[in-house]
Design a protein that fits this description.
Elements: H1 6-13, H2 17-22, E1 32-40, E2 51-56, E3 63-67, E4 73-79, E5 82-89, E6 96-97, E7 108-110, E8 116-123, E9 127-134, E10 145-154, E11 157-167, E12 173-179, E13 182-189, E14 230-231, E15 235-236, E16 249-251, E17 256-258, E18 261-262, E19 266-267, E20 269-274, E21 282-290, E22 296-299, E23 302-305, E24 310-316, E25 319-329, E26 332-335, E27 339-343, E28 350-352, E29 361-366, E30 376-380, E31 385-389, E32 395-397, E33 405-412, E34 417-425, E35 428-430, E36 433-436, E37 442-450, E38 453-461, E39 464-465, E40 470-475, E41 485-488, E42 494-500, E43 503-510, H3 521-528, E44 532-536, E45 541-547
Parallel strand pairs: 1-8, 9-17, 9-18, 20-28, 29-37, 38-45
Antiparallel strand pairs: 1-4, 2-3, 2-5, 5-6, 5-7, 9-12, 10-11, 10-13, 13-15, 13-16, 14-19, 20-24, 21-22, 21-25, 23-24, 25-26, 25-27, 29-32, 30-31, 30-33, 33-36, 34-37, 35-36, 38-39, 38-42, 40-41, 40-43, 43-44
Length: 552
């Protein structure tokens, strides 16, 4: 069962306790029950006074909540035949659903074939990481940004992904609570409070100077103290300035690790930017440090625009960065292509920014039938969304040039339309996304399908229903992450994969398979040969029995 939003259950638990414990789960016949015990996953001791709540899988407003006894036991009587979600909260333990894994959990089914469900709910002790950030003098660094990365398998893919960010307090202290056991990395960025950056140059028109900080140009040149022209490099625990030097923190259930770090300043770099265009143009620049994977952290810098094509970026330590420069013309922003650069003491101190990089996007849309009308094609990025309507022949062109970035491609029209295939010239295709990196015209070829299918069924092990299995529908011959469908089998072995895009797939189930990298085709090959072939059509409903495989 896929995880639902926790906000509903939070609101549920704030309701009247008397009503919550006495209200029937549904009107009508109610003769079934769920009983169980809440225990610690470490040692197995029962947990008293834990809050156990259940919610109807189809109607989140139907709920009940109880508190466990001294022996950790709980009971819900008088339930209607249905599927229920169970969630437990207990002080010092991670709030979770039953057998929860990476956003999926096992629902509890009761009915004529299972009048009483008995569960043992194992709670994981919360882990945390705390630490102090100090400077070269041993003084606390306030407002340092601390990034937590988790190295784990999620949705069938191993990655080192962002897991949280916090800011240090006035004493340089940070805390990263409520963590699951696993392998973590801690990264810190900060700016010396005393630093002075940049060389402010006098130009023929002081109004053409622009600072990212918003400070206007002075009437006379000011030379900062060169001894204070310093910056802190990005720091990886315990004290490396490169990701390869980072040491992981392995957290076990209930472990509270300490990760103290000391920042040491280095001479700040001054990067000359060759920005074409008239000097009166406003120019903005952002500098992002590239950390793990695709994650980027914005770094505080100064940008000074001077006469002609002259601009200077200051306040940056050596490291790997993405620098983005944009001009403001006629009331609109025109960005140049982002530059991935490695800045070092030995590297060139001059970068050619280039002309504004925006691409024209057009293409052709192939529809499943003539009843779709004239759909709208949408490009949705992190900060930009743009749309274009197809004509009667399926041709479309976006009215405004599109800046560099990664965009999800969607089709909206009559009925439920979805992107089945996506091809592009002039841009990189990543699943159902395109990545625009320059000003080259982009031509898209989109095939849309109407509706989606549903694949349901039961997971078996030794011819008996198996709960908690990882069920995956793997697309044939495609790498698009958006086409995969995943579920966790419920207490009766059932699963339900919704919104499946029409096409060919293989259905597999893996017992305790939540650490398997099934998005890796080489890994998946070992399971696909024993999977169930599935062909899904629009609005089709399918039911299969699939045998659970052991982790290979």
């Amino acid at each position: 069962m896929m995880r639902t939003k926790s906000i509903v259950l939070v609101a549920v638990l704030l309701a009247s306790a008397a009503f919550a414990q006495s209200a029937p789960a549904h009107a009508g016949a109610a003769a079934f029950r769920i009983t169980g015990t809440v225990v610690s996953s470490v040692g197995g001791q029962p947990l008293a006074r834990a809050t156990v709540s259940i919610a109807h899988s189809e109607d989140r407003q139907v709920f009940r909540a109880v508190e466990t006894g001294r022996d950790g036991s709980f009971s819900f009587d008088g339930l209607q035949a249905s599927k229920y979600q169970i969630r437990v909260r207990s002080r010092g333990y991670r709030s979770s659903f039953y057998r929860e894994h990476a956003g999926f959990f096992t629902g509890i089914v009761v009915g004529p074939d299972a009048p009483e469900a008995k569960v043992v709910f194992k709670m994981a002790l919360e882990a945390s990481i705390t630490g102090n950030i100090i400077d070269e003098a041993g003084d606390p660094v306030r407002d340092a940004r601390v990034y937590l990365f988790h190295d784990a398998v999620e949705y069938g893919k191993r990655s080192t992904h962002i897991a949280g960010t916090v800011t240090t307090d006035d004493e340089g202290t940070y805390r990263l609570p409520h963590l699951v056991p696993g392998r973590y990395f801690v990264v810190v960025t900060a700016e010396p409070w005393y630093a002075q950056h940049g060389v402010v140059r006098r130009t023929f028109n002081p109004g053409v100077m622009e600072r990212l900080s918003g400070v206007s140009a002075p009437e006379s040149p000011e030379q900062p103290n060169p001894e204070l022209d310093v910056a802190y490099p990005v720091l990886y625990y315990p004290g490396a300035t490169e990701p390869d030097g980072a040491e992981p923190i392995q957290l076990h259930p209930g472990e509270h690790a300490t990760a103290d770090m000391a920042l040491h300043p280095v001479r700040a770099l001054h990067v000359h930017l060759n920005v074409p265009g008239p000097p009166e143009e406003n120019v903005n620049a952002t500098v992002q440090a590239r950390l793990f994977g695709d994650y980027k952290a914005q770094i505080g810098t100064n940008l000074v625009r001077s006469q002609g094509a002259d601009a200077e970026l200051s306040g940056t330590a050596p490291g790997d960065y993405t620098i983005s420069v944009a001009r403001f013309r006629d009331g609109r922003q025109e960005p140049s292509a982002p530059m991935n650069v490695r800045l070092s003491k030995e590297s060139s101190d001059s970068l050619d920014v280039g002309e504004p990089s925006v691409a024209t996007v057009s293409g052709v849309l192939t529809l499943p039938d003539k009843n779709a009308g004239r759909p709208t094609i949408v490009l949705r990025g992190d900060q930009v969304a743009t749309a274009s309507q197809a004509d009667a022949d399926g041709h479309f062109e976006f009215p405004q040039p599109t800046p560099p970035g990664r965009y999800e491609v969607r089709v909206q029209g009559r009925g439920a339309l979805a992107v089945a295939t996506l091809k592009a010239s002039g841009a990189k295709v990543i699943g159902q996304q395109i990545e625009i990196s320059g000003a080259e015209p982009i031509q898209l070829e989109i095939t849309a399908v109407r509706g989606s299918g549903t694949v349901a069924g039961m997971v078996l092990s030794d011819d008996k229903p198996l709960a908690g299995a990882c069920v995956v529908l793997i697309p044939a011959g495609a790498e698009e992450e958006e086409l995969y469908r995943v579920d966790q089998s419920d207490s009766d072995g059932s699963f339900n994969l919704r919104a499946v895009i029409p096409g060919k797939y293989t259905l597999i189930a893996i017992a305790d398979g939540w650490e398997v990298e099934w998005q890796n085709r080489d890994v998946a090959a070992a399971y696909l040969k024993d999977g169930v072939p599935v062909v899904v059509s629009a609005d089709g409903k399918y039911s299969f029995k699939v045998t659970a495989q052991a982790v290979k």
